[in-house]
């Protein structure tokens, strides 16, 4: 199988597995991340588009948020790529991406290494921002049974992955605990530019949200 076929087969496999998911981690999230990753990679000289695409397609294949296990995504990716006879060097790189793509808390260090991984991480973060980011945050909060907002419960900047994982409150807090921090955390030139625009849109949205909440609009 050539590289294009491997990418195509992987896309079909992920689509089949993730199509109906209800928290904004469905196939269409993966599809957007895939497209954004290709878009960002165009401006990142020397990045390997094959690794970028496989990393983007597999990045949420078995997310810790749903499996409860941090390693399950990389394990499942490895199994799939071995089945397709992908070379071991590529498998290592893709598994590193899947394992390290996720946000782990505001005061934690990014463990992602390699140009391709930094591109995929930016593409994933972009889908957490802007109009789609807002929709995904409330979809996720709804699935977890969380309120939209509670003015008495303040956001926390988590210092560890464990604290972040267990610390979810109402969905407006998620903007302060993650989404509004992403603009400053972007890795690539293209990612930074796109994040800035989406960040501004979300800040405008929050202003309006509070105005309506307080009977001022
Ligand atoms: P990451 O791996 O960085 O968490 P994902 O692509 O798996 O990125 O999905 C992250 C998205 O899931 C967030 O941008 C948000 O839309 C949603 N999400 C995760 N945690 C929460 C939360 N506590 N409240 C609301 N939405 C959340
Ligand atoms: Ni994702």
Briefly say what this structure is.
This protein is mostly helical and 217 residues long. The chain is built from twelve helices and no strands. Helix 3 crosses helix 6 (88-100) and helix 7 runs parallel beside helix 12.
Strand coverage percent: under 5%
Report the helical percentage: 55-70%
| Distance between the first and last residues' Cα | 58 Å
Question: Quick one: biggest sheet?
Answer: none
Radius of gyration: 18 Å
Which runs of at least 5 residues are low in confidence (pLDDT < 50)?
none
Taken from the alpha-carbon principal axes, the silhouette is globular
Which structural class matches the secondary elements? mainly alpha
The small-molecule ligands in this entry are: adenosine-5'-diphosphate, nickel (II) ion
Task: Provide mean pLDDT, rounded.
Answer: 95
The helix count comes to 12
Number of strands: 0
Instruction: List the helices and strands in order.
Output: HHHHHHHHHHHH
